[in-house]
Amino acid sequence: MTPINILVVDYKEENISTLKALAKRDDIRIFFTKSSNEALKLAWEKRIAITLIDVQLPEKDGLELAEMLRSNPRTKDILIVFLIPQSNIVKLSALKGLETGNAEPLYKPLDHKITREKVESLIQMSRHNTDIKQRDEELQNLTVVINNAAEIVCIVDASNYHIKIINPAVEKILGYSQMELPGRSITDFAVEAQRIDFRRKLAGIVKDSLSYSAFEFEFARYDKSIIWVECRVVCQNKTLLLNISDISEQKNYQNQLIKSKETADQGKKVKETFLANMSHELRTPVNGIIGLTNLLRKTQLNEQQNSMIDLLEVSSQSLLGVINDVLDIAKMDAGKFNIVRSSNNLHDLLRAVYGLLKFKADENNIEFSLEIAPDVPVNLMVDSLRLNQVLMNLLSNAIKFTERGFVKLTVSVLQKNGDQVQLRFTVEDSGIGIPENRLSSVFDSFEQAEEDTAVKYGGTGLGLAIVKKLVELKGGELTVTSQPGKGSVFSFINWYITTNKPKEKVSFRTERLLEPFENVKLLVAEDNLVNQFMLSKMLKDWDIEVEMVDNGQKVLDKLQFNQYDLILMDTHMPEMNGYETAKAIRSNFSEPKRSIPIISLSAASFDYEQEEALLSGMNDVLSKPFQPQELHRKIRRLLKTADVIKSLA
Ligand code: ADP
Predict the structure, then answer these.
(1) Measured in angstroms, how far is the CA atom of residue 449 from the centroid of ligand 1?
(2) Which residue has the higher pLDDT, 387 or 458?
(3) Model's pTM, two decimal places?
(4) What is the DSSP letter of 501?
């Protein structure tokens, strides 16, 4: 606590000594003087709060000194108590000016107890006065801040919402003059359509005596224009304290953002639809070419024709590869790409990849090796399709970009944690390497290390972009180090869960052994002529009677007058697509036709399209390109189920 400064002005030593006893307290500091001139100096310099003045001073009398203190702004608030000799009490009490003192005078000789009590009460009074002064100053400062505030600050009666006090900011924000507002309801500012809501909001705050609430409303300005405001409200002692700020600009910005997001979403949707259609449009003819190549291979061919068929197959497979890569990238960008893990034998998977590429490495005279560390678990939860894709990409690149030397695939364990294991896959080669300044960009779509890479080595620059995204989707990281002329090391790290032995995969018998069907009649809906040709050839080879139509409406027409055991239906067809047709069969036909088995055949590459096929009532889906044995298996399975149902009926 800051000590209180007391000034005692008395020329008699014995009076001063009585007061000296008080000076021992540490919450007060007492200054003594016998001279009134010195007293003026001390009062000026020492921030004196209380002064005890002997009225009979030699140089100037005490009353005169008190007068001088009062007249100076710096000393005018000092509490003054006169010290009056008991003997002169009558004479002095008649003196003019004695009332200048702030309290009853003290009589000399000073009584110790009375003096102490008096000083104590003066100290209280002085402290109280200082507090009030301080608060007064703070209040004045606050008033300046409020008057200069950019937002509206407003005090409102909580019982009727009438404005009590409002700052000048209201003129700038709402266009009203500050003076005309006290007494008006704050709810009048809200636009008519929102006034009841605004009143309700305030009522809620008052009812619950909320210490803070913030909300947004539209207010009408004096000139009838409308702005968005944010109100921050506190309810205190039956009074509402409001801060109101103009947030129109923010709101506009927010609305623009929402609009841009909607436009972006719309764009994304258009892109997805476009890709879904492109996927169908591009993959259908390529599937046709691949299928026809297979059929052609089964006919009598001379050596030259055989090698042309080989080239046809390689070209169509690589075209399908590029289309699939573009679709994969698009699916990942659209967030529609899922990693599907299942129990798999990792060692088998690695050996299969190795086996597939070994001949290519041999062709190029490159030493190709696979090293699996002994502690790498055999059975893991793995998305085998995608891991295969990643390794095939990295290894094909390594072989492609290595003219001599070696390519090595190494798999090692980094850590184990319970049933989880962190593996590092490394593909190392002694090939051409990648210049340092191109190291990061080779992971971008359609980027290659050099201008002439495509010319010299082919490729599209999509592989690494896909690999990187796949590794990241699995929660890992792909890194590369490389030295031009010496070689490159690509590696990625992923966590896996170890499992028991994977389920035996259903092994397909080869096409040659596919058994023919007996008395089976199928309706096939397919608009692509090449696919029609392939399908009918394939089905007839299995002794199935086939009727072919090229749109959904024709399926319905045929089904009405004929009996079929199963329908194979393309999803994208003119006039009436596969989904609509399936729905119409499931709802408009009567049994048993209503439940006829339907297999969807589609070149679609998005999962949701397959889901839609099932939702529209089809029993199974098969995406193109498919293996003949897979179609054979699905037909057999569905016919068997249908037979069981028939026998139960
Ligand atoms: P692509 O192989 O179709 O060109 P990728 O995305 O797989 O596309 O690779 C991008 C580029 O990265 C390649 O064109 C090549 O310049 C460089 N690259 C990838 N792997 C290697 C490697 N093992 N050695 C040297 N360069 C490589």
Answers:
(1) 7
(2) 387
(3) 0.50
(4) P
